[in-house]
Amino acid sequence: MKVGLIGGTGFYDLFGALEEKVIKTPFGTVTLFQGVHEDKEVYFLPRHGTTHGVLAPDVNYKANMSALKISGVERVLAVSAVGSINPDIPVGSVSLLDQFVDMTRRRDQTFGAFSADMTEPFCQEIKSSILSASKTLGLSIYEDVTLVGVDGPIYETRQELQLFRTWGMDVVGMTNTTEAALARELGLCFSVITLSTDMATGFAETPPNLEAHRKVAEENKGKMKNLVLQTLSNLESNTDCSCTVPYQNAQNAAI
Ligand SMILES: [Zn+2]
Predict the structure, then answer these.
(1) How many angstroms does the Cα of residue 193 sit away from the middle of ligand 1?
(2) Of 39, 102, 104, 196, which sees the most CB atoms within 10 A?
(3) 2-254 has which fold?
């Protein structure tokens, strides 16, 4: 089975020797890194480019998801850093996304062929694999977490975040809503594990600090890697989830 892994640059050393694959898509060229984990062929996609230089609004999401599809990937696991707006999810927490509210306004997030069903935006089967992986590892994970997606790269105002919290949002992030919508159109299974690297502005006593955020990511790298590997081990090749319904028109537009 071919599995996609979308994450930061911290995952390069996860699969030993990686083979660089340059994939041409109708939306641009994407570099993927192919490795192996047990019986899975893994295609690692560094979301922000190989040097982490591309800001969230500038990521070429359509090219990225299209490249995974063209490579024959069926399931995609994504790992993201988020800000917590739920005080019960402290910095350093790992969460499994269940729902999202998309507040992005400037994203090209559809291949434009049909209206995809997003009632359950994430793959139930990958979610089960993530949960059982966390149990195997004895790692606590927050379930049923709702993300609010924002454009970035600027951070939100205090009042925006307070509003999101009154809506019941738990974490805020800039990438996953777009990835999830495109994955669904392509019939790709897609789920997300997040790491809360800070309390978002208005919920923290200190202003956003990139260094502090990187420090939390570094401190938690080991557990995130273990969770990713164990989740990949748990993924079964047979699937009866509904994500893979072939949306041929969208797929034709994307490859
Ligand atoms: Zn699925």
Answers:
(1) 15
(2) 196
(3) Rossmann fold (3.40.50)
